Amino acid sequence: MVETLFDSSELYRSVLEDLPIGVYIVDRQRRVRFWNSGAEHLVGHLAQEAMGQDGTGPLLEPCDRKGERLSGERDPLSVTLTHGHPQQFMAYFRHKDGHRIAVRVRTRAILEHNDAVKGAMVVFEEGFIFREDSSGPPMYGCLDPVTGIPSHPLTQAVLKECMAGMERTRRGFGLVRVRVLGLDEFRSKHGIQSAFPLLRTTAQTLRHSLDPEIFLGRWGEDEFILVLPSANRVATAVAADTAWSLVTKSEVRWWGDSFPVQAVAMYNVAQPGDVLEKLLNGLEPAHAAAAGRAVGAAGTGG
Question: Could you tell me which residues come within 8 angstroms of residue 29 by beta carbon, excluding any fewer than 6 positions away?
């Protein structure tokens, strides 16, 4: 019987290779046996770097929103490889450059003729797509050249507009301030240019790990501001905790070495009648840096 185009295994391999989403296949020992161009694009690792690696190990270091590693019984891929059950979940992979990226993941078992599990296919795509609002003013010239996110002047303008809008609508908003710790020490030890990847890694982790409705902008030299459209204190606290957890599970790559990012996240909610300066000052309690975690500010918001 003459093989037709649609009988060719190369056709299906080519289709998988060119899909605009990440696809990789692991064997029973979790070793990567296939890694498509979509996976290369999303997490930065080339196929030749991924082949043979542990698909849930140091290659991606998948974790949950709290930054806790998905391993053992907490790893959905283990369920698929052990029991053959498909899984669908959110995770945070580590990009080759060191920052974290939110991904939607689906797994499906690959079965032998006797229905024994031979391996698994993992399909993933970016969970939150950071995008400029096409209905708003153009962003050209308003982005910070180091981090690629809205600059300090634009962030300041957004905050002032939020404060003015709050007085009109009587609806508050959440505010999170993320500060990178040890920037001066890192720069003095590794050189002036080393500060740039440290700040970029932090910005990219936040950019790719948070809901696109959350505004992200540059604030101080080592600070970032997140503005949530809701004044819900619990949601704001969760956003702060997520930001801190994922930033501190990121790494900076500098001259072949990896360095963990240290940061602190503080949060509050703005309510009608608040003053911006007082609100921002209320985000910096004295114990924040020592606590090393998301810290709720006292006093200025309801």
Answer: none
